[in-house]
Amino acid sequence: MPSADMRHGPMRLPRRRRAPWGVLALMMLSGLAMMRNGVGEAEGPPQPASATASDTRDHPPEVPATFTAAEPLFFSPPQRVRIPAIQVDAPVTAVGLDAEGWVDAPPAEENNMAGWFTGAVSPGEVGTAVVVGHVDNMTGPAVFYGLGALKNGHLIEVPRTDGRTAVFEVYSVEVFSKEQFPGTRVYGSTGVPELRVITCGGAFTRDAGYSGNVVVFARLTDVR
User: Fold this and answer.
1) Alpha-carbon gap, residue 92 to 80, rounded angstroms
2) How many angstroms separate the CA atoms of 121 and 224, rounded?
3) Exposed site from 142, 199, 207, 214, fewest CB < 10 Å?
4) Distance between CA 108 and CA 33 in Å, rounded?
5) What does 83-137 look like in DSSP terms, one character per residue?
6) Cβ-based neighbours of 65, under 8 Å, separated by 6 or more
């Protein structure tokens, strides 16, 4: 059990729920405990401009008409995820479902590790790839602590085991509450290679943890 000196509550992992679009209808990461270490109660990870998404309708994601997708790649597991704008350069581990049907997360003790959900496509394939990670843990900020600071146009690079790097351009960064998480909008396929990067976010309370999730929407625009 976390002590009274811990800032955040334990992580609650998500259940898998089948839907016509074939991936998760709901996946919500909650923050782990983070030692105060001088961090005030009102402070926390950066959030997108809107603390709560204004449009939570569960429709397919809307992509700017000016975006041109790169040619899709074949299956190849990711090795790392790099987000230069927020100084992320982390190894990626495969995460699936545990025996009870809950989505696994990267090991809680690893500050700098992301998880690729193997129930979706690999980054660069046609469809929506999903990468998740902790915002913090028992020792402080974790891999996606700065995710909410991303802006449209920032790049996410995903080196793959086939030696190619899938490069995605961010076109939206939003926060969704746990109660109104739009699964189809987040996970649904647009027919081209896309990426979602997810961590916990929104308002925080000691009893309930984070109220929602930061979701980064990005589209494959280059292959290196």
Assistant:
1) 5
2) 19
3) 207
4) 10
5) EGGGTEEEEEEEE-B-TTSBBP-S-TT-TT-EEEETTSPPTTSSEEEEEE--SEE
6) none
- Taking residue 197's Cβ as centre, other Cβ atoms within 10 Å add up to 26
CA proximity to 151, closest of 175, 135, 172, 176: 172
Assigned token pair, 219: 């589209």
Amino acid, single-letter form, for residue 106: P
Question: What's the CA angle centered on 200, arms 17 and 54, to 5 degrees?
Answer: 85
Contact (Cβ atoms closer than 8 angstroms) between residue 24 and residue 187 = yes
| Global pTM exceeds 0.90 | no
Rounded distance between C-alpha atoms, residue 217 and residue 145, angstroms = 17
**Cα(83)–Cα(211) distance, rounded to whole angstroms?**
25
Which residue bears the tokens 């509550």?
9
Q: What is the DSSP letter of 183?
A: H
Q: What are phi and psi of 6, to 5 degrees?
A: -85, 140
Please return the burial class of 68, using the count of CB atoms within 10 Å of its CB with bins 0-12, 13-18 and 19+: exposed
